[in-house]
Amino acid sequence: MSQHQHVSALLIQIRTEMQALGFWQTQPPQPAALASREPFCVDTLDFTEWVQWLLLPRLEEMVARQAPLPQNSEIKPMAEEVFKQMQADTSTLLGLIEQLDQRLSTRH
Question: What is the value of pTM for the model shown?
């Protein structure tokens, strides 16, 4: 399986797990919220909104175009901090995010 195929499979799993946890939103945020210059859009979006509306679509587009993927990813530390405050069992989602970090940070 190619790097792009691995990443695509992980993106689908992340989306599915977010939906199962009730983190998936049906209405996108305002365009201005998506234009934040802060890491993870911390000033305008919740972390799960950033994953849904920015991270997943950008990576899906890169996969679809077979474009070069990021060579460094450190999403897990942010996810850990955010998920500590949630009542839901986020262990599966955190594991998927860790796999994505590893896949994007290591060339296979």
Answer: 0.91
